[in-house]
Amino acid sequence: MILLDGKKTSEAIQQEIAAEVAEIKANGGKVPHLAAILVGNDGGSVTYVNNKVLACDRVGFGSTLVRYNDDVTEEELLGKIQELNESEEVDGFIVQLPLPKHINTQKVLEAVDPKKDVDGFHPANVGRMVAGLTSFLPATPYGILQLIERYGIETSGRHCVVIGRSNIVGSPMSILMAKAAYPGNATVTLCHRNTYDLAYHTRQADIIIAAVGIPGLITADMVKEGAVVIDVGTTRVPDPTRKSGYRLRGDVDFDNVAPKCSYITPVPGGVGPLTIAMLLKNTLRAARKEVYA
Ligand code: ADP
């Protein structure tokens, strides 16, 4: 059993990006710049955005954090998005989700210039991904592809079972794994909350990608010997032995599943750390105008 080390892989990718930034600087070019819009004071969102800004510093990117109270109007938000769309300085930007209820999230996401949409949430990028055109891939699926590729895991002709059909993880993952490319060329089954007999499907999987947010849903009896298991779930469960009072648990019953696997991601330290690296990678691609060339 080989652990898929997301932390190490994320660090390697960030080092590669930092080296590219150093080269851009040495050639007198413009350093990539990421902006983030954060609405409100939700603890999780504040931490995520701060980590993204810190990561920019680490690789030598410029960054801007725009903060609003949670009573910000949709108009104000759309105005800021327009400004960032037109900014010469900002190569890519994100709107941290979730947004307050009075704001139409879809309208906000569609206001972002697809060329600067480094989260890959704009329908133009989703459509380009489905059509097999260059696009900004959402960070989590992009990170999973990197893990598979950097560990040289075979995917062609394999049966990949994706569990969860969210717009940001499960659905794009199922599309990417079925593509005529590496990683890809897999036979894909997409399971979700209406799937009858989930275990029937997972037991046939060479590769399982679980993105449901139900701790321990995937148990050892549901996994074939030698399977590759990628766990996207990170649910906070109470843990009085921790200072924080909680710990992160994945969708996979790691202790019992791991011995059966050829490869498996830990939680934490698997897919999670890659999302920031892939956001930076998308920002670099935006600055290089690689996606809409
Ligand atoms: P994420 O952001 O990680 O993708 P979401 O909460 O947005 O997570 O999506 C959860 C997905 O998990 C949904 O697509 C839902 O259909 C799926 N799901 C929820 N419960 C089950 C279940 N018991 N079995 C299979 N899939 C499930």
TrEMBL record:
<keyword id="KW-0560">Oxidoreductase</keyword>
<dbReference type="Pfam" id="PF00763">
    <property type="entry name" value="THF_DHG_CYH"/>
</dbReference>
<dbReference type="Pfam" id="PF02882">
    <property type="entry name" value="THF_DHG_CYH_C"/>
</dbReference>
<comment type="function">
    <text>Catalyzes the oxidation of 5,10-methylenetetrahydrofolate to 5,10-methenyltetrahydrofolate and then the hydrolysis of 5,10-methenyltetrahydrofolate to 10-formyltetrahydrofolate.</text>
</comment>
<comment type="pathway">
    <text>One-carbon metabolism; tetrahydrofolate interconversion.</text>
</comment>
<dbReference type="InterPro" id="IPR020631">
    <property type="entry name" value="THF_DH/CycHdrlase_NAD-bd_dom"/>
</dbReference>
<dbReference type="InterPro" id="IPR036291">
    <property type="entry name" value="NAD(P)-bd_dom_sf"/>
</dbReference>
<keyword id="KW-0658">Purine biosynthesis</keyword>
<keyword id="KW-0028">Amino-acid biosynthesis</keyword>
<keyword id="KW-0486">Methionine biosynthesis</keyword>
<dbReference type="InterPro" id="IPR000672">
    <property type="entry name" value="THF_DH/CycHdrlase"/>
</dbReference>
<dbReference type="InterPro" id="IPR020867">
    <property type="entry name" value="THF_DH/CycHdrlase_CS"/>
</dbReference>
<dbReference type="InterPro" id="IPR046346">
    <property type="entry name" value="Aminoacid_DH-like_N_sf"/>
</dbReference>
<keyword id="KW-0554">One-carbon metabolism</keyword>
<feature type="binding site">
    <location>
        <begin position="164"/>
        <end position="166"/>
    </location>
    <ligand>
        <name>NADP(+)</name>
    </ligand>
</feature>
<feature type="domain" description="Tetrahydrofolate dehydrogenase/cyclohydrolase NAD(P)-binding">
    <location>
        <begin position="138"/>
        <end position="290"/>
    </location>
</feature>
<feature type="binding site">
    <location>
        <position position="234"/>
    </location>
    <ligand>
        <name>NADP(+)</name>
    </ligand>
</feature>
<comment type="subunit">
    <text>Homodimer.</text>
</comment>
<dbReference type="InterPro" id="IPR020630">
    <property type="entry name" value="THF_DH/CycHdrlase_cat_dom"/>
</dbReference>
<keyword id="KW-0368">Histidine biosynthesis</keyword>
<keyword id="KW-0378">Hydrolase</keyword>
<keyword id="KW-0521">NADP</keyword>
<feature type="domain" description="Tetrahydrofolate dehydrogenase/cyclohydrolase catalytic">
    <location>
        <begin position="4"/>
        <end position="119"/>
    </location>
</feature>
<keyword id="KW-0511">Multifunctional enzyme</keyword>
<comment type="similarity">
    <text>Belongs to the tetrahydrofolate dehydrogenase/cyclohydrolase family.</text>
</comment>
<protein>
    <recommendedName>
        <fullName>Bifunctional protein FolD</fullName>
        <ecNumber>1.5.1.5</ecNumber>
        <ecNumber>3.5.4.9</ecNumber>
    </recommendedName>
</protein>
